[in-house]
């Protein structure tokens, strides 16, 4: 029995959830372990092919991932959406992200795969001329917007054509600096479910939904998986609308990608001093409670080029560079019932670069299991 190389399914999706730093929505493992090999007692008569979302030519599965991303200096402009706040502009001298993720096959059989994922992500900002005297920037300066998450992904092949995929993720997203807030204040949840068809070893697709923070705010939207290998060199991997990627297999040890991703983040930020909303005449608004926290929603689109290369049989590296377009970086009132937008911000577009190392099952182990990369 021979299985497709690796099951890769992304996410976004969030617009890939979304968690904005905090709730990185739709952060589904991009790859899954191969099925466990059949026992010697199995015979040709009782062997059964099971469908899955993967196609031949996809990169290796990822067990442990460490990634660092950095952007150079870029402009930031904010405009107040309520009375009593000011407009402000400055430059961000640093915007960096560190992420550590691990995926463990809790159940790994041809007819059922269950993958448990754990992750930690941290995003940092530094601004010019500190303190900026602007509430939002001073409260996230060097603070560390963090996301600690756990998720369970299930792939259930039905037969040699049909398959299901489901994922549930829970995380704590925010600055985690206040003893006044409980874990429930930072908690975020996201989920997705997809039903698919495996038309051939080179073509698999599926439709479903994603529920999460890919676009900054919690939302439900349709999702389309489209994985196809056209020939030994070229293929496409997509989880639309969150991610579309063109793949080029230079050789078994080196793969190039080009495309876009949409990432969403959702953080809870604790304010060092309460922020009171005001009436148009400048007097305090007696109908609203002073804010001690803000909900920060961040959405960005990245146009990227990526290279993955095998260093050792169990260790690969990924180098990525591209251009980041910020769609939203907005702060919302999460205290009062109206959930009004308080600050509308825009981060200027900027290039970015990242370096990643990930551990994968050794090639010899996969060959013994009858799996081709």
Characterization of this structure:
This protein is mainly beta. The protein has a single domain (44-368), classed as Beta Barrel (Porin), CATH 2.40.160. Helices cover 4% and strands 56% of the residues. The chain is built from three helices and 16 strands. It has helices spanning 135-140, 183-186, 363-368; strands at residues 64-71, 74-80, 88-109, 112-127, 145-157, 162-174, 187-200, 203-212, 219-229, 234-240, 243-251, 254-275, 291-310, 315-333, 341-347, 350-359. The chain has a 16-stranded antiparallel sheet that branches. A hairpin with a 4-residue loop joins β5 (145-157) and β6. The longest helix has 6 residues, at 135-140.
Mean pLDDT: 81
The largest β sheet comes out as:
16 strands, antiparallel
Number of domains: 1
Give the CATH level 1 class: Mainly Beta
* Rg (CA only): 22 Å
Contiguous uncertain segments of 5+ residues:
1-46, 367-373
Which fold name corresponds to the CATH topology? Porin
Strand content: over 45%
Percent helix: under 10%
Based on Cα principal axes, name the global outline. elongated
Helix vs. strand class: mainly beta
First-to-last CA distance: 15 Å
Q: Architecture in CATH?
A: Beta Barrel
Number of strands: 16
Number of helices: 3
The helix/strand order is: EEEEHEEHEEEEEEEEEEH
Keywords: Signal
Domain DUF6268: 152-269
Protein name: DUF6268 domain-containing protein
Signal peptide: 1-25
């Amino acid at each position: 029995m021979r299985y497709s190389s690796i099951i890769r399914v992304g996410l976004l999706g969030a617009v890939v959830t979304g968690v904005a730093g905090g709730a990185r929505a739709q952060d589904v493992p991009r790859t899954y372990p191969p099925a466990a090999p059949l026992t010697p007692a199995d015979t040709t008569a009782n062997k059964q092919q099971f469908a899955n979302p993967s196609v031949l030519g996809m990169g290796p599965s990822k067990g442990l991932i460490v990634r660092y991303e950095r952007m150079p200096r870029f402009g930031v402009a904010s405009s107040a959406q309520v009375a009593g706040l000011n407009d402000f502009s400055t430059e961000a001298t640093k915007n960096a992200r560190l992420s550590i993720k691990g995926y463990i096959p809790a159940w790994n059989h041809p007819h059922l795969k269950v993958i448990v994922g754990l992750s930690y992500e941290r995003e940092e900002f530094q601004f010019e001329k500190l303190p900026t005297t602007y509430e939002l920037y001073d409260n996230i300066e060097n603070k560390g917007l963090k996301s600690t998450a756990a998720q369970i992904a299930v792939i259930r092949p039905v037969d040699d054509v049909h398959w299901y995929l489901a994922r549930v993720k829970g995380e704590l997203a925010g600055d985690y600096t206040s003893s006044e807030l409980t874990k429930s204040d930072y908690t975020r949840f996201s989920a997705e479910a997809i039903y698919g068809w495996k038309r051939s070893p080179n073509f698999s697709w599926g439709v479903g939904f994603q529920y999460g923070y890919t676009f900054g705010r919690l939302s439900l939207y349709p999702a389309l998986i489209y994985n196809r290998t056209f020939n030994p060199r070229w293929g496409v991997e997509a989880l639309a609308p969150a991610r579309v990627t063109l793949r080029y297999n230079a050789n078994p040890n080196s793969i190039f990608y080009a495309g876009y991703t949409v990432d969403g983040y959702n953080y809870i930020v604790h304010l060092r001093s309460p922020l009171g909303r005001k009436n148009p005449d400048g007097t305090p608004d007696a109908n609203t409670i002073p804010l001690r926290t803000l909900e920060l929603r961040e959405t960005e689109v990245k146009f990227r080029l990526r290279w993955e290369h095998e260093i050792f049989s169990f260790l690969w590296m990924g180098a990525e560079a591209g251009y980041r377009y910020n769609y939203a970086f907005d702060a919302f009132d999460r205290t009062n019932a109206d959930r009004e937008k308080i600050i509308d911000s825009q981060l200027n577009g900027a290039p970015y670069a990242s370096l990643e190392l990930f551990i994968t099952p050794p090639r010899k182990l996969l060959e013994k299991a009858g799996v081709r990369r």
